[in-house]
Structure formats: C-alpha cells, structure tokens
Amino acid sequence: MGYDWAALLTDYGRRDGFVAACRGVIARLAPAVRVIDITHDVPPQDVRHGAAVLAQTVGYLPPAVVVAVVDPGVGTPRRGVAIAAGESVLVGPDNGLLLWAAAELGGVREAVSLDATEYHLAARASTFDGRDVFAPVAAHVCRGTPLSSLGRPAGELISLPEPTTRVDRGTLRTEVLMVDHFGNVQLAARESDLAAAGLGAGLATVMIGEPVRHAVTVPVSTTFADVGTGELVLYIDAAGHAAIAVNRGSARSVLGVHPGDHVVVTADR
Predict the structure, then answer these.
(1) pLDDT of 234-250, one tens digit each?
(2) What pTM value is reported for the model?
(3) Are residues 107 and 9 part of one domain?
(4) How does DSSP assign the chain, residue by residue?
(5) Which one of 88, 121, 149 terminates a domain?
(6) 228 and 253, same domain (yes or no)
C-alpha cells in the first residue's frame, strides 16, 4: 500500500533551509506525493507542544505518511520509529512525540525501529535525522515499502506523561496543555470534564499556579465575542478542550501562564 499524501510537523521554523531540505528529499524520492505542512513553528525542543498539535490535527488529514520532528535527542541512541495507526503512518523520533496522535487515530497497529539504513540517505549527518532518516523513510513508505522492511518490531514505545485533570463537583483541577499563536490558553481538561464539574454557563474563578499567583473571575461561554474587547472568557476550543482567551487579545499576556502550569477552576457562586 502506498500513499498519495505526506505531512510534516517540525520545530525547524522557516528562517533556515531545514524544511525545504526535508520536502526536497521527499520530492526526489516520491515526486508524485503531495505534502501538507502542519506547522514548523513548534517551540524549539518542546516535544509536548508538538505532540498536542499533532494529535489535534491528524484526524483531519487524508490517509498520509506523517513526519514529525521535535527531536532534542537527535544524535543520541534514541530510536527513530514508524508507527501504523488508523489509515496513516507516523514517522519520527521515539520520544513520545507520536503516541498521542496514534491514539487519536485508533491506536498503534504496528511499530518498527528504523534500522534498515538502505532506506536512509547514504550520507547522514549526526544532527539532521529529519532530512537524512525520517523524510526518506516517509518517501519509501509512500511508494509502498512495508513497515516490516524498515526495521525490527519496536516493542515498547516511549510515552509522554499524561497531563493531569481531576474533577470534583464544582471544581476542576487541570494544567495548561499549550498556548497557541493567538495567546489562547488551552487546558488539558476537555468539555466533558467541564460538564462533570458543573461548570456550565455562568461565572467561574480561575486560579493559576501552585501556590496561586493569579486568580480571575471569568464568564463561561461559547466564543470570544460573548465578552467585550480585552475581556477574558472560558470556552471550549475547536479541539474540544477547555481554554481561556481574551477577545481580540492574548490570554497568555494577561495571565502570564506557561505550559504545565497548575490551574484550578471553580464555579463562582
């Protein structure tokens, strides 16, 4: 089975030629394959951010070979892997980056270590596996190379710690999962967690940090324009997560939050 589509997610940015080199390798080896750029603006070395973006995107892609590279361990003994999940194949480092996406696609069906060097570039640098290993492997899979040819079964894969969420009646304890380009603060808690805590329409108190360094009362609503310009709102974002935004502004700037920050949300009585 081959693929007509590939997709790329990296922390390479667009200032340098790293992305073009990866796309060029795919184009040389599989010129008919079309490539979707998911993002190349993952914060440098932020594996968890990359994992979250990938997991929230893969369900909207066509069946594809998805190359994801956020790889602070490049050049070390960490493995490269290819994972079959759903109708797609995920290719990248075995550092937890791929597993949330695999779960969104229905779970891991097959996983192999990228041991077979004949599917890598002949000249390999020690610090650019995106170009020299993952992109050529993706191109070969697009052309129909089975995963079993790429290397040995991977066995246990490295996973990231799951974000914490705890629900009590009237109280939701969670953490900041990530902050997007607009400064919207996505929480690990999902819509069902908000409902289970009884945090529907009305007001909620949001406390950030442990110990608390910021506390605000915000309306729970459905979209940014439900509050005035510059005001905070707690809502369910497009990925189904609870999130905090500022209408026409940045909640990150207002709240001073960072990924991993502890957050407690309580119903304001």
Answers:
(1) 999 999 999 999 999 99
(2) 0.95
(3) yes
(4) ---SEEEEEES--SSSSHHHHHHHHHHHH-TT-EEEEEES-SPTT-HHHHHHHHHHHGGGSPS-EEEEE--TTTTSSPPEEEEEETTEEEEEESSSTTHHHHHHTTSEEEEEE---GGGS-SS--SS-HIIIIIHHHHHHHHTT--GGGTSSB--SPP-PPPPP-EEETTEEEEEEEEE-TT--EEEEEEHHHHHHTT--SEEEEEEETTTT-EEEEEEE-SSGGGS-TT-EEEEE-TTSEEEEEETTB-HHHHHT--TT-EEEEEE--
(5) 149
(6) yes
